[in-house]
Amino acid sequence: MMLSSARVLPPIVLLAILAACGDDDAPARDAGAPDARVPRDAQIDAPIEMLDAGTDGGPLDAGPPGCLTAELESDETVTSLTDTLGTARVTIEDRDACLRTYYLSSTAVRRDNSPAAPPIPSPRTITEREASPSVRTGNDLFDALHALAIDEARENAVDSIRDYAFDDGASVPCGAEGCFETGRIWNYVWTRDTAYSVDLGLAAIDPLRARNSLLFKVSDRRAGGRTEIVQDTGTGGSWPISTDRVAWALGAEELLRWITPGDHDAFAETTLRALRGTIERDRGTIFDPEDGLYRGEQSFLDWREQTYPAWVNAPGAPALAHIGMSKTLSTNVLHLRAIELAAALAEDAGDTTSASRWRGWASDLRAAIHARFWLADEGMFSTYVTTELDPSPVRRFDLLGESLAILGDVATSDEADRILSSYPHLGPGAAPVVHPQQQLTRIYHNRAEWPFVTAYWLRAARHADHDAAGDRAVRSLMRAAALNLSNMENLEIATGSPFVSEGVTSGPVVNSQRQLWSVAGYLAMVHHVIFGLEASDEGLRVRPWITRAMRETLFDSARTLVLRNVVWRGHVLDVVVRLPEERTVGNYAIARVLLDGAAIGERAITEDELGERARIEVELRAAASGGGHEITTLDDPSDWRAIFGPRTPTITGLAREGDRVRVQYALGGDDTSTLRVAIYRDGVRVADELAGTSTSYLDEATDGATTTHCWAVEACFSSSGTCSQHSPPSCDWGLGNERVRIFDASTFTVTGGSPITQYGRFHHQGWGDDGHRIEVSGFTPTATGEYFLQTLYGNGGPIDTGITAAVKRIVVEDATTGAMVAEGVLVMPHMGAWDRWGESTLARVRLEAGRTYRFVISADDDTVNMSAFQHFATYTANVGGREGPFARVNIAELRVLRVGP
User: Fold this and answer.
1) Alpha-carbon distance 426 to 443, whole Å?
2) Which phi and psi (to 5°) does residue 715 adopt?
3) For residues 616 and 59, what is the distance between their CA atoms, to the nearest angstrom?
4) How far is CA 39 from CA 77, 89, 104, 597, 858, in A?
5) Three-state secondary-structure class, residue 814
6) What's the rounded Cα separation, in Å, for the pair 179 and 181?
7) Local structure of residue 24 (DSSP, 8 states)
8) Which residue intervals of 465-514 are DSSP H helices?
């Protein structure tokens, strides 16, 4: 089993995890003083009904500072949640106490992946603490689950972190204020986990600890100089195969809105420096000027066989360079957000030149993302383009990418509505993180609900005012936390269970309690969506987002909702939301906002308006419009093909018939009578609706004498429309050296490395240090046009971890004058063993017929890998750590591939 880079559990722990199916709890029991209120069970699968509401209400029970309580219409309160998996229940020791003690119990079978720690008991005791945020809503279960999230955020707050991949698992201090670890079984700080968690909820809970966690992921070069965000997890040696380190910008941007003025400027300066180094190097290494997009793996979905076609991870012959050449929706939106933040910070710092340049980049990138990924027929954005040789967006989708596209305003308002209505929801919870699912694949990202992604989906629903998607997300987040007595890492999508035993596809394979971004996602639901806290550069707005269904199912007994002890930039705030009596269709709108009793409209509240403590009251009214949205559900599918995509086809051969090419293919093993087939040429769909029983397609193109074409095949289920991954691309390179010229290692002029015959080839071994250089001379093309340059290489690092993907620059020179004609970057990811040979990424150049060229491959300041950074000086899981940076590969060939005009 393979997990993400620098994130693989030690073998003994991993074996224990794979052997565990869950913990059988004793029957639920109540504890503490009995609740005098009349319990009202909340059936999680009950239909949601909407009623009207109005704005009147009596005075609040002020009580002592920080002890506001909700005003209720009745004594009824929700105390339990019942599901097919079991019942969760809460009792309260003293319901009227300023600081409550909750007893949460669950009859559901739960799971604990930590062999070293005892299971969480049922009932679980949660005691509110002075000065910590708390809520009062008239819904005891809702209030208790918020307290649980606050408590688990506290459990994740540590003074040091550790991971076996660093310093052999020794503890690493993380600043005077400490930092956040990633979960109960993940005792480290990863870039993307931290960034998403800070963005979702932790910036508002503990800004200094959030700051330390983010700064831990910023590093200078070991040799000094440029500061960058580190890519500490991913595929095949990390960056630049995985490039979502720019997620860091989301956390940094949100933190800048919450951190106190005394700490703001220093963090802003560091943020700008880190973003400058990161986005400038990404621009020179992974940006493709051909289509204006950035290359690199999907964000967070970095377990290859879970979400990529199996052929990129074929046993013994991985083709991870294709992941490095892929262009993904989620990661490109993250690049967009990082560039936009850098531009804003540069403007604030007086660097108008950089700000203007970066704003131009952002504007162009926004347009490029939309142009490439939006699939109008599907009403959603494609999750990725698989590879350089098949630049067509797949008809597959991921929830985080869709959410980020909505929140980043890449989607128009109409498109956002379509996405939220079209993305299928499955099972009792929220939407799965990918759609369709992969057949014969273990549950982890595949067939799973991830609460932190659900939280982003909820934020997207709020952004687009889509009540149905938002209601489902709220219900899912509450259900998951209540039944598991913890904010879990992930859940099986069809049942909502933390583990499903079904043989080789059982899972989720790994599942941690109090997963940091799940905790943060729950807090985001309460603080930033329902209570509507919105910090910005202008100040703080409070714009609650409460739907008709939330009022009916969650807050039916309440006239007011109260959020206490929220700290914004050093000011303690109590937020009171007054619900209208009228219960009408639609989401509630704001009638008025009061700051310490004075009406302020809906403008942002500034710091100089606030004392040490302040009360913000928001009166809601019935909305004039809105609500009534629908979502696509697969809760009871009559056809499993609505959930899964077909298995991946393969191209078995290309055959010339005159001046045309016949594409011969085989489907992946599904019943061919249930399939239809699509053919893609050079990224364009040239045939659709071919019968699944067909085995070939005669392409219409007749320019094969001058242009190399590449084809891919896709299969779709006729009944559901769900589609497969694309086949490996197959190209008609044509007539020998006219199209393909191979220079083997014996023709190289080499500085560095050692010539050797080993692993079946003559090659230059251990090549790639600073100062190493390869020259290949004497290529004179017979046709002017586009060419790809590529190496055949070996890099023995592990497929699923490491920091030593090799990055080299290739320069094309005029052999006569020495003038540089073109340049590009070649990336050579890990292959899993040194006796394997793989093809690097492709560098596209334009060459002229009759002109003789020299190719030079070397390293420069922009082509170092992550091992060059001080952050990894204590890395001990593989090469590139204590012994110093490592950028070596074995080089056996340079290939020149003619593309065409």
Assistant:
1) 15
2) -115, 145
3) 15
4) 6, 10, 14, 35, 71
5) strand
6) 7
7) P
8) 467-484
Q: What is the 3-state secondary structure (H, E, C) of 39-82?
A: EEEEECCCCCCCCEEECCCCCCECCCCCCCECCECCCCEEEEEE
Question: Cα–Cα distance between 473 and 479 in angstroms, integer?
Answer: 10
Residue 60 has pLDDT above 70, yes or no: no
Paired strand residues for 897: 740, 788
- Tell me the average pLDDT across 8-17: 37
Are the beta carbons of 596 and 107 closer than 8 angstroms?
no
Beta bridge partners of 54: 581
Are 726 and 646 spatial neighbours (Cβ–Cβ below 8 Å)? no
Cβ proximity of 827 and 806 under 8 Å: yes
More confident residue, 14 or 441: 441
State the residue for tokens 């078995």. Answer: 652
pTM of this prediction exceeds 0.90: yes
- With H, G, I as helix, E, B as strand and everything else as coil, classify residue 806: strand
Phi, psi of 731 (to 5 degrees): -115, 145
Q: How far apart are CA 521 and CA 542, in angstroms?
A: 18
Q: How far is CA 287 from CA 10, 281, 292, 331, 335, in A?
A: 35, 9, 7, 12, 10
Element at 641 (helix H, strand E): none
Is the Cβ–Cβ distance between 775 and 858 less than 8 Å?
A: no
Helix (H, G, I), strand (E, B) or coil at 445: coil
- To which H or E segment does residue 337 belong? helix 329-348
**How far is CA 157 from each of CA 192, 480, 518, 522, 571, rounded to the nearest angstrom?**
17, 22, 14, 16, 22
Which of 763, 741, 746, 755 has the alpha carbon at shortest distance from 852? Answer: 741
Predicted confidence (pLDDT) per residue in 647-671, tens digit: 999 999 999 999 999 999 999 999 9
**pLDDT tens across 770-783, in order?**
999 999 999 999 99
Task: Please give the full DSSP string across 279-301, using - where no structure is assigned.
Answer: HHHHHHHTEETTTTEE--PPSS-
pLDDT of 553-601, one tens digit each?
999 999 999 999 999 999 999 999 999 988 766 789 999 999 999 999 9
pLDDT higher than threshold 90 for residue 225 = no
The owner of tokens 């980020």 is 404
- Tell me: pLDDT of 31 over 50: no
Between the alpha carbon of residue 20 and those of residues 109, 158, 179, 487, 507, the distances in Å are 12, 27, 30, 19, 10
User: Which helix (H) or strand (E) segment is 696 a member of?
Assistant: strand 696-698
Backbone angles phi, psi at 871, to 5 degrees: -55, -35
Q: Is 871 helix (H, G, I), strand (E, B) or coil?
A: helix
Strand-pairing partners, residue 595, are 598, 616
Distances (CA, A) of 398 to 56, 244, 518, 822, 827: 43, 15, 18, 36, 26
Q: Which two tokens stand for residue 352?
A: 């108008």
Give pLDDT tens digits for 700-749.
Answer: 999 988 899 999 999 999 999 999 999 999 999 875 567 999 999 999 99
CB contact set of 13 (below 8 Å; sequence gap of 6+): 115, 116, 185
In contact, 726 and 394? CB cutoff 8 Å: yes
The most distant pair of C-alpha atoms in the chain lies apart, rounded to whole Å, by 93
Q: For residue 208, give the H/E element and its range.
A: helix 207-215
Confidence of residue 428 (pLDDT cuts 50, 70, 90): confident
CB 677 within 8 A of CB 691: yes
- Side chain identity at residue 239, one-letter code: W
- The amino acid sitting at 40 is R
Q: Which residues pair with 574 in a beta bridge?
A: 615
Tell me 250's DSSP state.
H
Specify the residue for token string 């009214």: 621
Buried b (16+ CB within 10 A) or exposed e, 586-625: bbbebeebebeeeeeeeebbeeeebeeebbbbbbbbbbee
- Helix, strand, coil percentages (3-state) for the chain, rounded to 5, are 25, 30, 45
**Residue type for position 255:** L
Tokens 């790639």 — which residue? 768
